[in-house]
Amino acid sequence: MSSGRLITIEGIDGAGKSTLAVALEAELRTRGVPVELLREPGGVRAAERIRELVKDPDLHIDPRAEALLFAAARAQLVEDAVKPLLRDGTWVLLDRFVDSSLAYQGGGRRLGIETIREINEFAIRGLRPDRTLLLVVDTALGRGRLGARARPLERLEREQEDFFRRTAGAYLELLAEDPTRIKRIDGSAPPDRVLAAALEAISDLL
Ligand code: TYD
Predict the structure, then answer these.
(1) Tell me: domain 6-205, CATH 3.40.50.300, correct?
(2) pLDDT tens, residue by residue, 89-136
(3) Ligand 1 in reach of 5 Cβ (< 6 A)
(4) Which partner for 106 in 17, 102, 155, 190 could form a disulfide, CB atoms 3.0-4.6 Å apart?
(5) Which ligand 1 atom is nearest residue 39's CA?
(6) Residue 16 CA to ligand 1 centre (angstroms)
């Protein structure tokens, strides 16, 4: 039995996941919770190599290959890092997990949520988040925040508005399906309010 908790952070690009992840990690540490922050795709060496592939704007990657690459990176991260940490009693804060694939590849790429769930089941072998914090922002706000970053857009970020609308829609479907695990947080609020809402959403686990 694992005693660590798995908390995942989800949302479309520009929703504010990474800002929340860093703040929540610091707050949990302050409260004496042993916690490690990891990100997807990546987090361990082999998965970081896959991350370079899936982000490269010069590559054409077929949607099915893309779904399998994200699942492969996830399988590696789960075996090498997430499961051992949880077994040791460490909490794992994960910036994206299976729901990202369900939303982006299932919804955005229109491969279907159930198909993507199946390949991910193979990859993660039953691991379930204890709680998922879904940052919800208007797709236009998310896109605007991306454009304001001082770096070129990555491969998936170059997708059109309707791709992100389908992705955001799939996230809301997942929320409706499992409101006990997934908690909706307003990503347009200031960072301190987002952090407070996240702490409230995991208060029963603390
Ligand atoms: P992310 O690391 O959140 O981007 P950044 O750190 O630059 O904010 O995710 C990289 C991209 O990969 C992002 O556009 C979302 C996408 N993605 C998927 O399409 N499916 C997945 O399963 C995952 C984990 C990410």
Answers:
(1) yes
(2) 999 999 999 999 999 999 999 999 999 999 999 999 999 999 999 999
(3) no
(4) 102
(5) 2
(6) 12
Report yes or no: 17 and 96 within 8 Å, Cβ to Cβ. yes
What is the reported pTM? 0.95
Tokens of 117: 């769930």
* Pocket lining: 101 vs ligand 1, CB cutoff 6 Å: yes
